[in-house]
Write a structure and sequence with these properties.
Blueprint: E1 4-10, H1 18-36, E2 39-42, E3 62-68, E4 71-80, H2 83-90, H3 94-110, H4 113-120, H5 122-157, H6 159-183, E5 201-206
Parallel strand pairs: 1-4
Antiparallel strand pairs: 1-5, 2-3, 3-4
Helix pairs in contact: 4-5, 5-6
Length: 207
């Protein structure tokens, strides 16, 4: 039985730094322990200087020790913190990100990559589609809201003014829904562009 592991973790396209990732890990470790009736103890996050790497002593950024009668496993986690890159991407103009996302989506379809996602695992394929479907759904709802508002105001305000008001409402609706979705941690803020397709990868190495 493996008693020690060292994980190198590359998280998805999320703007979360080491502190946030460690906090999430502690929360989910408690769920894991309760689900499987084991004991799981997570160490505090090891504070490192800006731009510093984890000390080369085998403990990474934090450790977790899981145990039950007859066994114990200690795992070290070394996290790739690329939250600064993600935040820089999210700071780009929304329209530019939407355009780059549309180009990326077209490329994934044309190259057959999306088909291979579904062939490998339909759940991963569905996960891949979520951010794009979010954008399409939000846009459809925003356009419907703008059209309904313009139609209701056309008689009193005229075609031009009501149409302009409908466009403003559609834009505001899309922005509000996107902001609300982003506040829950979804990917609408970071619509995948180029190599930024949301991916999570953990590699565990027995030690």
């Amino acid at each position: 039985m493996v008693h020690k592991r060292h994980f190198f973790h590359v998280s998805g396209f999320d703007p979360y730094d080491l502190t946030a990732l460690h906090r999430r890990f502690v929360r989910e470790a408690a769920v894991f322990a309760a689900t499987w009736n084991v004991t799981a103890a997570v160490s505090p996050l090891r504070e490192l200087g800006a731009g510093a790497r984890a000390p080369d002593d085998g403990d990474g950024h934090w450790t977790i020790t899981a145990s039950a009668p007859g066994w114990q496993v200690r795992a070290s986690y070394e996290q790739l913190d690329w939250s600064d890159i993600v935040r820089a991407e999210l700071a780009r103009p929304v329209l530019r990100r939407l355009w780059d996302g549309a180009v990326t989506f077209a490329d994934l379809i044309a190259s057959g990559t999306a088909r291979r996602y579904f062939a490998a695992n339909w759940r991963y394929g569905a996960f891949f589609l979520v951010p794009f479907l979010d954008v399409v759904l939000f846009a459809a709802i925003a356009l419907a809201a703008g059209w309904a508002a313009a139609s209701a105001m056309r008689t009193d305000l005229g075609t031009f003014v009501s149409g302009f008001a409908g466009v403003l409402l559609a834009g505001a609706t899309f922005a509000l829904m996107s902001a609300g979705r982003a506040s829950t941690g979804a990917y609408i803020r970071g619509l995948p562009t180029g190599s930024s397709l949301a991916t999570t990868c953990s590699v565990g190495v027995p030690t």
